[in-house]
Amino acid sequence: MAEGLRYRLRGILRPAWYAVRAFVSPGRRRILPYSIQYLKRWKLAWFRDDLGALLELLRDGKIKPMVAERMPLTEARRAQELLGQGGVKGKLVLMAASR
After folding, report:
1. More confident position, 3 or 98
2. Which end of the chain lies in a sparser environment, N or C, as judged by fewer CB atoms within 10 Å?
3. DSSP 61
4. DSSP assignments along 40-60, one per residue
5. Cα–Cα distance between 23 and 16 in angstroms, integer?
6. Which of 74, 77, 70 is nearest to 93 (CA)?
7. How far is it, in rounded angstroms, from Cα 94 to Cα 70?
């Protein structure tokens, strides 16, 4: 299956999977997927509140982002290839060259 199609299907099917799980989960507990992209686009005030809370947790050391690797911006292509291969645990952070 072509890579582009795989990612498009994943984007379409993932929300459907969450909806199905909401109805078949043990005890019929409701599951609500969290999408920061949705909040940023449609609920800007909620997005700002959530982002502020997240940055506060980060500042206080209560959360620690999982960073798989930091790499120079010039290696963006390699970063994309790593993501395409799957298996990356955490975020790949592209660093701009300091002046």
Report:
1. 98
2. C
3. T
4. HHH-HHHHHHHHHHHHHHHHT
5. 11
6. 70
7. 6
DSSP state for residue 81 in the 8-state scheme: H
| Model confidence band, residue 70 (pLDDT cutoffs 50, 70, 90) | very high
Nearest CA to 86 among 3, 1, 2? 3
Higher-pLDDT residue of 47 and 73 is 73
Is 0.70 topped by the overall pTM? no
Alpha helices in the chain (DSSP H): 3-24, 36-42, 44-59, 76-85
Least Cα distance to 4 among 87, 96, 80, 90 occurs for 80
Residues 6+ apart with CB under 8 A from 15: 33
pLDDT digits (tens, 9 = 90+) for 9-67: 666 777 766 666 666 556 666 656 677 788 888 888 988 998 899 899 999 999 888 99
How far is it, in rounded angstroms, from Cα 28 to Cα 15?
18
